[in-house]
Amino acid sequence: MTDQELRKQIDAFFEGGLSDSEEQELRVYLVTHEVPQEFHGEKRIILALLPDGTNRLPEGLEDRMSSFIDRLPMHKQRHRRRVLSPAWRWISGIAAALILASAAGVYIARQSAMPKFSEQELYACTEAQHALILVSQKLNKGTQQWQEAQQEIAKTKQVINKHFKYK
Asked: What pTM value is reported for the model?
């Protein structure tokens, strides 16, 4: 194989353009032939990526791994029980109760400090909400029409370019 053909094969390999059999042929060539210095880096990468088929798993490894994985949840539960002692449970429970009590106190204090709105002010807020919703709906409708117009312009442009042969 010439240097140019080898370069094409290596480039095709890295672009994913070789079939499995072609990849194996490239691997065999790289193992059995001496290649120029400029290809040594690619050779190491290709030989690392393409298995030679001699790597076999030891007998029973899959069964041992399955049983190990099945035992993992039990191991985690046993470990978790040892870590959380009853004292830590009490301490964390008391801390959570204090946090909830302080949050409730702050909420109640802020509720009483909030101003009370009159019925007229509430009506004005409701009307403002309705106006904003109406503006939003009309804006969305206008945006949709603008997008449809853009699509029509693009189609017209394609037809014009097709007839006048612009690219």
From this structure: 0.33
